[in-house]
Design goal:
The complex is a heterodimer.
Chain A: E1 22-25, H1 29-42, E2 47-50, E3 66-67, H2 74-94, E4 101-102, E5 105-109, H3 112-127, E6 132-135, H4 137-143, E7 159-163, E8 167-168, H5 171-184, E9 188-190, E10 195-201, E11 204-210, E12 213-216, E13 220-222, H6 228-233, E14 242-253, E15 261-264, E16 269-273, E17 278-285, H7 297-310, E18 318-329, E19 336-339, E20 345-349, H8 359-372
Parallel strand pairs in A: 1-2, 1-13, 2-9, 5-15, 13-20
Antiparallel strand pairs in A: 3-8, 4-8, 5-7, 6-7, 10-11, 11-12, 14-17, 14-18, 15-16, 16-17, 19-20
Chain B: E1 3-8, E2 11-16, H1 21-27, E3 48-51, E4 54-58, E5 69-72, E6 92-103, H2 107-118, E7 123-126, E8 133-138, E9 142-147, E10 150-161, E11 165-167, E12 180-181, H3 183-191, E13 199-203, H4 207-212, E14 222-228, E15 235-242, E16 245-250, E17 253-257, E18 260-262, H5 265-269, E19 275-277, E20 295-297, E21 302-303, H6 304-312, H7 318-325, H8 338-347, E22 365-366, H9 367-370, H10 385-390, E23 394-398, E24 401-406, H11 410-419, E25 422-425, E26 430-435, H12 439-446, E27 459-465, E28 471-481, E29 484-489, H13 494-508, E30 513-516, E31 521-527, H14 531-537, E32 549-554, E33 557-563, E34 571-577, H15 581-592, E35 598-599, H16 602-611, H17 646-652, E36 659-666, E37 676-679, E38 682-693, E39 698-706, E40 715-719, E41 725-731, H18 741-744
Parallel strand pairs in B: 1-5, 6-7, 6-10, 10-19, 12-17, 13-17, 25-35
Antiparallel strand pairs in B: 1-2, 3-4, 3-5, 8-9, 9-10, 11-18, 14-15, 15-16, 20-21, 23-24, 25-31, 26-29, 26-30, 27-28, 28-29, 31-34, 32-33, 33-34, 36-39, 36-41, 37-38, 38-39, 40-41
The chains are: A alpha+beta, B alpha+beta.
């Protein structure tokens, strides 16, 4: 028997009722977290979560499981720091093991410009509550096991920002813990049901059409990944989102003794060892928009080479499996959350490469918005209308995958 | 007999020609894992070993020749990580092209290869049994395989997957014991002359195998469990169920035939139309009977009880079953468990679920192997690169180029520019020539300036705006004659700008010629109060006036000289043919030696330009930098007609200003670049550029300063370089020589 199987979570599937207070489209992390927080924080339990495949089967189950708050603008640092703190408490709160582990996120730089970028990141992190320091090469050489300080002869390691709170957790377990909590509180979650239309009347949401029949509701949350623009199209809302694939892979399982979570924008990858012992590597997003989840060779070829260059000891690790997720990229690399011009149609999207780490805080804020009718301060800057108001939140260098 | 030897746990193991590591071990009475049925076909995890330091190697798929050290797979826990001081190995890549790649050299694969050859097509056949193990079919199609000494990549028009079938392995109590073989595996072992003791067969075992095993027949009944031999991890008896009840048949070896499953993973990972699947890989097989007990996933050690348990707790989808138990996520990628997971769900009344998604890699290979042959992304080098390195420059990558950061004495470099004359390699600047009937019309719409007022021989600083009115590049426009212009861009900005110009002008239907000369032209900036004097020595007695340009010959080398200034001192940019860069540099250095001429690097250049308040796009700008926020409204002329970003700029100019890029002055050393600034307790922005200014004897900075409480602060607080709070005063730009007298001198 392996110790990593899910031994506790109990999922109780529901039949859809005719009407709900809130319908959440998308049974991924953000949809489940929104339902969870609606039920547990606000006592709103007449909630349905509609998933077209299986829960956590989209990007919530295809990401690289890194949790961090080391973003580059105050609004994002505050938000992700809240999420990081909620994650730290999630096991205790749900009484479920999500394999949460703090390893520290080291963002390596190889140029003078990189030093400037990471010093800036550390400064804004410290100012807004995330623990990040800029560290010099000698600290890196001392603390990171097996690192080659001059990979490929042209990427000298010239420093790093060290985000002490950087962590990982098992993505599936996060989804399930939230689903179970919501289900136990009375939320109805259905799988293999697709939303085919959203009905409005006089600019207000009145219901949704699904492959399992119509549902009356005045509040719809689109928490879908990958197809957020198509969902918004149903009510005539245009989203500034483009979807790009992002590729990752894991190696076989090895004894766990590599703690840091390493990222290098110049070398184009990040790597960490999971609690199960796999070495997990991820890459840049693919430059061309696509819904494809096909794994590519160019990606794994170049990442593996760079990874071995930085960590020669990894040469003999065997690659087990590649996979691909899709990233909903907003123009400013910051999420898009909250109300839309259609009354009752709420969105949580633009989760790019940072959706997993935002699951607890994202759901908490969306639930608060629904329960109180007012956009929480934490997510007010992420409103869709920021593009029209020229209040975009440019944060490209923080995404880690560009 | 020829053969080879490898060491296994301190013992030398002799292998015969053609032996896999597994066969050689079995010959010596050993096996690399404690137990589990052997398939000898790479479909299961039951013969994993560590070969020459690489764990998770299937002993059955690895030739004994070429392996020197083999260790067993750990019975508990995971293999260790390699030692952190392990060095990388070099792997060779064998790149090939073919019309057709046939994967699998069995009957169907051989036939498919012959058919394709008969049609005159170039065929590559790969087969794991011949040492070339396909690990994936990627977009292309593009087949990647592992070979005994590296990897093979084959680009093809089409792929034929003839990988045959795998044998269903037993899942019953005791199926983790040693001594259990699938029929094919048994044949291979017996053919190799390996002694297997008392052999019995259960289930559907073909006659040839039966006769090879010298058996009279098959043990009757349905397989129930295996029982160990006393005090051993080897099977001692097989128990079957017959109409008369359970029968235990003593034995040393059991051959279990439970049917086959198509080995179609490679075909399933191919894109539409990329692969044809033939032979038994294409033959649908009935699902095996759902087991009641036993380990269903030997990789992740998942039992049938666990499947039941998670199923009862709501994990009813095949993907949820997999993710919750981790069945199918190990080395064999579902090779053993997938048919059983499907039969389990069918047995529980669920519809027959599809196999889980097939993704590379079908068989494992090391990071070094899959990374072999990748090209290193590299930064471009100017024609003067070697010279900089010879001069002892510390090189740094910036904007996609290797550039000198400093030549070792930044103070002296700075002094040379301010007090004498200095050279800087600016070959990295984006440079293009645009001509053709619509060149001016294109520029007029591309840039927020009135290009018609730039006279021949003159130049102007310009911003490039996107449709949202955000600055994404800057540079100069210089008019050569009526219809020809030279354009400069930031280092690293040229390729984006080229796309930008071509796309827009094509959309406008303009007839232009655009020549990107960034990589074919060298440029040296001669700057400092004695720059004119140096040019005179080089034969230029009538250099271009401020913001003028023209064609000259400098020390015998044809140059286009631009008179402009980024350093704040008199500057001449000498654009010249790339192949003469070194000659020009050396001539200028020699002529200027007694004027105090020395080169300066980026560190000095960045300090000089900051003193002048010149922005660097990318460092001082972000993806929301409008001309107004950058305080560059002076560079936007709304009277010049339509231009990209015009409407966005007009619209956003009506929205209250929230932040702007301002100059800050500190009495002492400034904060680090990136430091956060505060107005009282309110967040007031961040510093984008900072330096100590020797010329104004103060810390100077550019910073995004936010509106706070309805106004822009005139004083901000920040943390100084030593951690102490310091105060910065908002200051007008430039910090030094506001009249620009020095540059125009």
């Amino acid at each position: 028997m392996n110790e990593f199987w899910e031994a506790k979570v109990k999922l109780r599937w529901a039949e859809l009722a005719d009407s709900y207070d809130v319908v959440v489209i998308g049974g991924g992390g953000h949809g489940l977290s929104t339902a969870y927080h609606l039920a547990l924080r606000h006592g709103i339990t007449k909630v349905a979560v509609i998933e077209k495949s299986y829960i956590g089967g989209g990007n919530s189950g295809r990401n690289t499981t890194v949790i961090r708050a080391n973003y580059g603008i105050p609004e994002a640092v505050r938000f992700y720091q809240r999420s990081l703190e909620l994650y730290e408490n999630l096991e205790a709160e749900t009484d479920r093991w999500i394999m949460h582990r703090v390893g520290g996120n080291w963002w390596l730089v190889h140029t003078e410009a990189g030093r400037r970028t990471e010093q800036a990141r550390a400064a804004v992190n410290q100012a807004f509550g995330a623990k990040t320091d800029f560290v010099e090469p000698e600290v890196i050489a001392r603390e990171i096991p097996g690192i080659n300080m001059n990979p490929l002869g042209q990427f000298p390691v010239m420093g790093a920002s060290l985000h002490h709170g950087g962590a990982t957790a098992r993505h599936d377990r996060v989804n399930w813990a939230l689903a179970e909590g919501a289900m136990r509180a009375g939320v109805d979650i259905v799988q293999d049901v697709e939303v085919t239309g959203i009905n409005t009347s006089g600019g207000k949401v009145v219901g949704v059409e699904t492959t399992a029949g119509p549902i009356a509701t005045e509040t719809v949350v689109s928490a879908v990944g990958g197809h957020a623009t198509r969902m918004a199209d149903m009510v005539g809302v245009r989203l500034p989102i483009r979807t790009h694939p992002l590729q990752a892979f894991v190696t076989n399982h090895y004894e766990r003794k590599f703690d840091p979570i390493i990222a290098s924008a110049d070398l184009g990858f990040y790597v960490s060892q999971t609690a199960r012992g796999e070495m997990l590597g991820g890459a840049h997003i693919d430059p061309e928009p696509s819904y494809s989840r096909r794994a590519g060779h160019h990606f794994v070829n170049s990442i593996a080479r760079n990874m071995v260059a930085l960590f020669p000891f990894m040469s003999g690790l065997r690659v087990l499996r590649q996979w691909t997720g899709t990233c909903d990229m907003s123009p400013d690399y910051t999420p898009v959350m909250g109300v839309t011009p259609v009354n009752g149609f709420l969105i949580t999207t633009g989760w790019g490469t940072w959706g997993f780490k935002a699951i607890p805080a994202g759901g908490e804020a969306m639930a608060q918005l629904i329960a109180t009718g007012e956009t929480p301060e934490l997510i007010a800057p992420f409103a869709l209308d920021r593009f029209a108001r020229d209040r975009t939140l440019a944060d490209r260098s923080s995404s880690g995958t560009h | 007999m020829a053969g080879s030897t490898f060491s296994y746990e301190g013992t030398a193991i002799d292998a015969q020609d053609g032996d896999s590591v597994l066969l050689a071990l079995l010959r010596s009475g050993r096996r690399p894992t404690e137990g589990g049925p052997l398939c000898l076909a790479g479909d299961c995890p039951n013969c994993l070993c560590t070969a020459d330091g690489v764990s998770y190697v299937r002993a059955c798929q690895t030739a004994a020749t070429g392996v020197t050290d083999v260790a067993p797979h750990p019975t508990t826990g995971e293999p260790p990580l390699p030692p952190f001081d392990e060095t990388a190995v070099d792997i060779t890549v064998d790149r090939r092209q073919a019309d057709v790649v046939v994967i699998g050299h069995g009957r169907s694969g051989t036939a498919a290869a012959e058919d394709a050859r008969a049609e005159g097509r170039a065929v590559e056949v790969v087969d794991a049994g011949e040492g070339v193990e396909a690990i994936g079919i990627y977009v292309g199609p593009h087949v990647v395989a592992r070979t005994p000494n590296g990897t093979r990549e084959i680009h093809a028009e089409s792929v034929v997957v003839a990988t045959g079938s795998s044998e269903i392995q037993p899942v019953v109590p005791g199926s983790g014991l040693a001594g259990i073989y699938t029929p094919r595996a048994a044949r291979t072992v017996l053919d190799a002359g390996i002694e297997l003791g008392t052999i019995v067969a259960v289930g559907d075992v073909d006659d040839e195998t039966l006769s090879a095993a010298s058996l009279d027949g098959v043990v009757a009944g349905e397989l129930v469990r295996f029982e160990p031999a006393a005090g051993s991890s080897n099977v001692g008896a097989v128990v079957t169920k017959t109409a008369d009840g359970e029968i235990a048949t003593p034995c040393d070896t059991v051959i279990v035939g439970l049917g086959r499953a198509p080995r179609d993973m490679l075909a399933r990972m191919a894109g539409p139309g990329e692969a044809t699947i033939v032979g038994s890989a294409a033959t649908a097989a009935p699902l095996p009977q759902c087991p009641n007990d036993g380990v269903v996933c030997p990789c992740s050690n998942v039992t049938m009880q666990q499947l039941d348990d998670v199923y009862d707790r709501g994990f009813t989808h095949i993907e949820l079953l997999k993710r919750s138990t981790l069945a199918g996520t190990g080395t064999c990628q579902g090779g053993v468990c997938l048919p059983y997971l499907r039969s389990f769900l069918a047995d529980r009344g669920e519809s027959i679920q599809p196999a889980f998604t097939a993704r590379p890699v079908a068989r494992q290979l090391t990071l070094a192997e899959i990374g072999a042959g990748a090209h290193t992304s590299t930064a471009a080098r100017t024609a003067l690169d070697g010279l900089h390195r010879k001069l002892g420059a510390q090189m740094d990558r910036m904007g996609g180029w290797w550039r000198p950061w400093t030549y070792g004495d930044p103070d002296a470099e700075y002094a040379a520019v301010r007090e004498a004359v200095s050279l800087c390699d600016v070959s990295t600047l984006g440079l293009m020539t645009i001509s053709g009937p619509d060149a001016e019309a294109t520029l007029q719409r591309l840039y927020p300036t009135d290009v018609s007022t730039i006279r021949a021989g003159r130049s102007r600083y310009v911003l490039m705006l996107d449709e949202r009115g955000y600055v994404f590049d800057d540079g100069m426009i210089a008019r050569r004659d009526d219809g020809t212009f030279l354009l400069t861009f930031t280092s690293g900005g040229a390729s984006m700008a080229e796309m930008w110009i071509r796309d827009w002008s094509a959309g406008w239907g303009h007839d232009i010629r655009l020549l990107n000369q960034t990589f074919s032209t060298g440029a040296i900036n001669v700057t400092g109060p004695r720059a004119t004097e140096l040019l005179t020595r080089a034969g230029i007695t009538d250099p271009p006036p401020w913001l003028g340009h023209g064609k000259y010959e400098v020390a015998g080398i044809p140059c286009t000289i631009f008179r402009l200034s980024f350093t704040g001192e008199v500057s001449y940019e000498l654009h010249h043919p790339l192949e003469r860069s070194v000659e020009l540099w050396n001539a200028l250095s020699e002529l200027g030696a007694d004027l105090g001429c020395r080169p300066h690097g980026l560190e000095t250049l960045l300090r000089l330009r900051l003193e002048k308040g010149h922005i660097i796009v990318g460092q001082d700008t972000d993806y929301d930098s409008t001309p107004r926020r950058l305080r560059h409204e002076w560079a936007v002329n709304f009277n010049s007609g339509e231009f990209i970003g015009r409407h966005a700029v007009l619209r956003t100019d009506r929205i209250p200003l929230d932040k702007q890029l301002l100059g800050l002055r500190f009495d002492g050393p400034p904060p680090i670049e990136g430091a956060v600034i505060w107005s009282g307790d309110e967040y007031a922005g961040a510093i984008t550029s900072a330096a100590w200014s020797p010329s104004v004897e103060a810390g100077i900075a550019l910073a995004w300063v936010y509106e706070v409480d309805g106004g822009f602060p005139t004083e901000v607080r920040a943390t100084g370089p030593d951690g102490e709070p310091i105060t910065g005063t908002v200051t007008s730009l430039p910090f030094f020589d506001p009249e620009g007298a020095r540059a125009r001198a």
